[in-house]
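## tool: complex_structure
## caller: assistant
## args:
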Amino acid sequence: MTENSLDTAGRQAAADQASGARAAAAGPGSVDAADGLDGTASSTVAKQPPGGGRPPRPTLGRRALTFADSLWRPALVLAVFFAAWWFVAAREYVPNYLVPTPGQVWETMTTQWSELARHTLVTLYETVLGFVLAAALGLVTAVAIAYSRTLDKALYPIVLFAQVIPKIAIAPLLVVWFGLGLTPKIILAVLIAFFPVVISGVAGLRSTDPELLDLAATMGAGPWRTFRKIRFPNALPHLMAGLKVAVTLAVVGAVVGEFVGASEGLGYVLLLANGNLDSALLFADLILMSAIGIVLFVLVEIAEALLIPWHASRRAGVSLTTS
Amino acid sequence: MTAAPAATGTAIGMSGLTVRFTTRRSQTTALDDVSLDIEPGEFVTIVGPSGCGKSTLLKIVAGLVKPTSGDVSLLERPVRGPQKEIGFVFQKAALLEWRGARANILLQAEMRGMDRAQAARRADELIEMTGLTGFEKALPHELSGGMQQRVALCRALLHSPPVLLMDEPFGALDALTREQMNAELHRIWRETGTTVVLVTHSIAEAVFLGTRVVVMSPRPGRIIRTFSVELPAHRDYAQVMSDPRFDRLATDLRGLLGSAAANH
Ligand SMILES: Nc1ncnc2c1ncn2[C@@H]1O[C@H](COP(=O)(O)OP(=O)(O)OP(=O)(O)O)[C@@H](O)[C@H]1O
Ligand SMILES: [Mg+2]
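## result:
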């Protein structure tokens, strides 16, 4: 049913385009062949029949199916990975104090759950705050760079410098300056996540079709309206790609900050576990860190799907025609 | 804004327009000493070989390209910077890919801060008129090339501009839809008294629509001749096509374009 309606719409569009190409091919210097037809032909032509309605939304079962279809491959890889880990650890090919079994890790997680949850929340808080600040600062910087040549020349070197300076090297300095609280961690997360936001934002804002800007000019629109209605929405696909990179990097920033000096957070727990040779806790900690990154990444992806459905539908359209 | 300008003076004045584009690799003279005065309410069609500067000419009038030398005026005022008393149909549709057809048309109203309800009514009229009914919500990539171009046309007409600049607006349409759109555009022009400049590659279109046909030479673009079209102001497609005056003019134009290309 869904396929059917899509198919007719597709054929109709194809027919439209094919005849358009023919008309264009007739080119200059020759009267288009069909232009010579007398008026009776044109009077019998019906207007475009309606048919541009959206296909019905996929049913719940169908959606569950596509969801399962997208999930089984990573699930399989994970299962193989866990099996291999369990095999190596349980047979003690590697001593247990180096690589614990999945069971031991699970036990650590459940018995120390409340403690681990508290530390996870701390790291999550630092990461999210750092990411949000980086996104806001990065966007403002990107707009400044994309709009002003002077600011472009002035800001780009600073942005690049902030990126190439090894963040791990300045972490101790930040601790000296801001103490052992949350501030240095958040600053590190911002510093690390900032760069991809700026780069993707500038690329997106600069990718506007010049003809669209010409169009906006003939509409008498000021820079703010042009930004809001044309340049910003046009930059969103680029920007969202940058935000996805940024959010995973923000986790790294927060953890590095905790390594250098902290009394809470997953990075702090990691150092503790390392010192005590508590490999089960170490592994549990690593799993929680990765979980933060994955969950935040998925949240940004969901935001992307909600913010730019046109982009997603375009990609879906492409796969429809190729499959 | 809706009314045509007073029928005195010129709607568009061009004198001695020369445009040179300098790129890293080469220098192109796109237009060479082009002068043309267009009166209010005229419908001027421009034909000429590809690359002779027709699009550039329209962009100069719109204030989007600055000529290397020469003067332009629009509605008696010198053109300095982008003009907004115009409706512009670009050679490519130039639609916002995240907006549906109707929302793309309404962009014109939003950018100008027009009255919403009024603009919405006008948009629906135009959608109906151009046969886009049923595709109001379709995104540009879901529309055919010809339909995209029709959306662009509606967008240019939404604010009833006193001057309409059109760059091959019907190039992507099939011949029959093209005839319909020609007839529709002719009606709009007759009823509103809008001044129109339309670039086309179709001689039939140029003659059917134009009160004057301007023929340009290959690059560097010059005006080699202008023809007054001696056909009634109120035209019917079938009648015009069988009119001997149409035949004569079309033959002349074809000959002129052919010899211009041959001499090049
Ligand atoms: N921004 C630009 N930079 C450099 N050269 C340009 C630019 N715009 C146009 N040109 C050159 O100017 C010439 C005229 O271009 P224009 O687009 O006006 O041609 P046209 O008559 O509209 O052609 P067509 O019928 O194919 O649309 C071409 O040779 C083109 O290469
Ligand atoms: Mg052109």
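## assistant note: DSSP finds eight helices and ten strands in chain B. Strands of chain B lie at 12-22, 27-38, 43-47, 69-74, 77-78, 86-89, 163-167, 195-199, 212-216, 223-228. Handing back to user.
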